[in-house]
Design a protein that fits this description.
single chain, about 425 residues, mainly alpha, 3-stranded antiparallel beta sheet, 17 helices
Length: about 425
Amino acid sequence: MIDSALGDKPKFDVTIIFIYLALVLIGWMSIYSAAPVEQYTSILDFNQVYGKQFYFISLAVLLIIIILAIDVKFYERFAGVIYVVSILSLLGLFVFGKEISGARSWYGLGSMSLQPSEFAKFATALALAKYLSQLDVSIKDIRHFLVASLIVVLPAIIIVPQPDPGSALVYAAFFFAMHREGLSVWFLMLGLIGLAIFLGTVIIGPGWIIMLCAIALIIGFTLSRKRYKKRLAKKPKIWVYAIYLLACSGLALAVNPIYENVFSERHRNRIDIVLGRVEDSQGIQYNIIQSEIAIGSGGWIGKGLRKGTQTQGGFVPEQHTDFIFSAIGEEFGLLGAGSVVVLFMVLIYRLIIMAERQRNQFARIYGYCVAGIFFIHFFVNVGMVLGLLPTVGIPLPFMSYGGSGLWGFTILLFIFVKLDAHRMSYQH
């Protein structure tokens, strides 16, 4: 279905396109620089990671042309079909998947691999936007909230046991879009409280967490009674607080079984290291230590392209993938790393501005999903590389090596670029 509305004179957002090209170019240069000096050959050498990434970028350009050529209404009309195909592709991994680095997250295609979880993000964003943009749907209605949550949670549940908790974590981004559409901030607060209970239980055990929750709820109930007596609030109901305590206690008691049986050993080790529970300078923690050394040695302006000692020495394992930001920090310094951070901040801010100017609710919701996904990826990846967050295997968009990631992010972004370009004429 090729776009027949050429007379609409679509205006593509130049700022977004410029940022995309800048990030892709910086990413490719960093992947090129992360290869050992003795391995440098032609940039078209498919046997080298930078050669493969060059081909991936070329195919991404072809994808952009196709996305922008398709009729703008196609994405809303077939959102459900795209989502179902995406779910089936994730389920198929358990039967036909190829195991790489302990995770069955890829389909083998000759010498290449395809990771469907990267494409499931834009499929889920389309499906959520389609559902919430229906005329009779309100996110404040508990039924519609549960359906919307199921759309978001279903792919994440399938991804976790692959195991790939990093990719599953990204799906929390969709709740920001739901909040924009009317979901109470308390739902987001409940998510943060749940995360705090999870981490607290891992660190100090369920008994202490249950006791702390009980104390907090008693204090909250007491303060509510005082406000009620002063006629500043409604009368607090003790059974509501009792339910809160039961929910918190149930979560705390469930943490250890989930942590030990759902999370793989390598993921548990990475979380334990960040929480300071274990020291492992020669094992799992080695990546983080070497990454911090690389970034710290870059100084203000860096050591120059292909001149980083940590990068060229191969001290950061698989640096061209999830730890590509450390190569930027060493060879381009604070100036280069800071520029990348600024580019991502502008990208996310610009996406929010674009989302708010949409006349169509489907396009607005999809735009917020896109902004949320990029924020989670950027925040977690940079925090991981700096040693502030656990190493969970989340790539830096447009910059980390990999065809699936680059193509998935490109499709995700340019569908919204297409929707935005037709915002003046596109209606349901």
